[in-house]
């Protein structure tokens, strides 16, 4: 396959992602990558009736990571530590929560679809089974300004400039994104998705 084939597949995956209304995702960050407010995350994101997310992860609290359950609904972030009650942590869209917002992953303007469309110099690197899905592997480059919305980095560990990226896109239509990985000097940031369009109800925790 040529670069043209790679671009066409990326564009199709981008369009599919922008139309996706529900997805399960897993985010893993190499411990040496210090710029993100999250080290790992397992959750579900929906766009209808409004953007929302729920799951669990390890989030940076001051200078260390803590395991936290989260719900994002109605623009508010709710969190719960082990053995504690749910708390409203603030307005996720206004930055009051000062945390990672996984619900942006399916945002039509800032989410995965936009990131895939911005990949430069894409090349087909073969096919392989990834997470149980037969997928086409594509390598290329991504600029930090294009993936900052889904992988926000700040402080001394902030990522700048272009970075090698690899995506795995399901070979079968509608060509869902299976995994996106960014390679940095300190390690990889990887986002996997599955359970596309499996509807989940996300409500404010009691």
Give an overview in words.
- There is one protein chain.
- It is globular, with a radius of gyration of 17 Å.
- It contains three helices and eleven strands.
- It has 206 residues and is mostly beta strands.
- The chain has helices at residues 3-19, 112-117, 144-147; strands at residues 22-29, 38-46, 52-61, 64-73, 76-81, 87-91, 120-130, 133-143, 162-170, 177-184, 187-194.
- An eleven-stranded antiparallel beta sheet has the order 6-5-4-3-2-1-11-10-9-8-7.
- A hairpin with a 6-residue loop joins strand 9 and strand 10 (177-184).
- The model has no long low-confidence stretch (mean pLDDT 92).
- 13% of the residues lie in helices and 46% in strands.
- The N and C termini lie far apart (52 Å).
- The longest helix is centred in the first third of the chain and has 17 residues, at 3-19.
List the helices and strands and how they pair.
Blueprint: H1 3-19, E1 22-29, E2 38-46, E3 52-61, E4 64-73, E5 76-81, E6 87-91, H2 112-117, E7 120-130, E8 133-143, H3 144-147, E9 162-170, E10 177-184, E11 187-194
Antiparallel strand pairs: 1-2, 1-11, 2-3, 3-4, 4-5, 5-6, 7-8, 8-9, 9-10, 10-11
Total domain units? 1
Here the CATH topology equals outer membrane lipoprotein receptor (LolB), chain A
Our estimate of the beta-strand percent is over 45%
Q: At CATH's second level, what is the architecture?
A: Clam
| Averaged pLDDT | 92
- List low-confidence stretches: none
How many helical elements?
3
Largest sheet: 11 strands, antiparallel
Q: Helix share of residues?
A: 10-25%
Distance from N terminus to C terminus (CA atoms, Å) equals: 52 Å
What is the radius of gyration computed over CA atoms, rounded to a whole number of angstroms?
17 Å
Mass-distribution shape = globular
Give the SSE order as H and E letters: HEEEEEEHEEHEEE
